[in-house]
Amino acid sequence: MSTFTHSELDEAFGRFQRTVAEIAVTRDWDRFAELFTEDADYVEHALGTMSGREEIRAWIWKTMTAFPGSHMTGYPSLWHVVDAPTGRVICEVDNPMRDPGDGTLITATNITILTYAGNGLWSREEDVYNPMEFGQAAMRWCEKSAELGTLDDDAARWMETIGVMFARRR
């Protein structure tokens, strides 16, 4: 059972969201890792569990500096629920990608479960999502960018390798 109040959890989540919004602009992923306790777990269903802040740090830098993470512009919560008895916040996170050049909005969402540890730190994050939905969104972005002549080298490599699994069958 949690010792945190609904209000404390809601405020901590608000700080978390504001920090993540800043990180989306600065791309300083060390700050993201610093949101977690030294012994935190980060459960990422498609890639496994990162144990400890330093594993989270290495994973987040690798993930968010390569396509498609490198092309996501923010991670706003669309809604959230505070579960004070468990010390958790559950939310739906939007992951919009940068404008491919014509104003098109391409995004995918996930459900995140955060467990609060106190003092502004989180002891666990679990992201639940459909990898196919994310892959298809990334491929749509690549196709639109290629059509507009704005496809960069990193995205082109992804499109030609991993992206083939998400190509629309015509």
UniProtKB/TrEMBL annotation:
Give the InterPro entries listed for this entry: NTF2-like_dom_sf (IPR032710), SnoaL-like (IPR037401)
- SUPFAM superfamilies, alphabetically? NTF2-like
Q: Which residues form the SnoaL-like domain?
A: 23-122
Q: Which domain of life is it from?
A: Bacteria
- Among the Pfam families in the record, one is SnoaL_2
The name this protein goes by in its record = Nuclear transport factor 2 family protein
Lineage runs: Bacteria, Bacillati, Actinomycetota, Actinomycetes, Mycobacteriales
